[in-house]
Design brief:
1 helix; about 100 residues; 6 strands; alpha+beta
Length: about 100
Amino acid sequence: MKENEMNMKVTVTPLQNQEGSLKANASVIFNDVFKVTGIRVGISKNGNIFVSMPDYKTGKLDDEGKDIYRDIAYPVTRNFRQQMYEEIVKEYEAVMEKEEA
């Protein structure tokens, strides 16, 4: 493994209630030493799969009166985000294919 190469182990668990836009929860273990949970996978209104990193409600409201959320963990670079999201979506699609079979 190259010095900057990240080993990711992705686990996706479909939600029991598939009626909303959120479809599954995911976790990622990085290099067998660090785990991030609370990642959400869903399908947008236009049919695209999206990945949402874990976040928390700050207790503050924006100018429109909507809750403000802050990320707990997130990819720092565009390249790593793309790599990680692709791995999560690939695992999501594999799990959902098995569910339908």
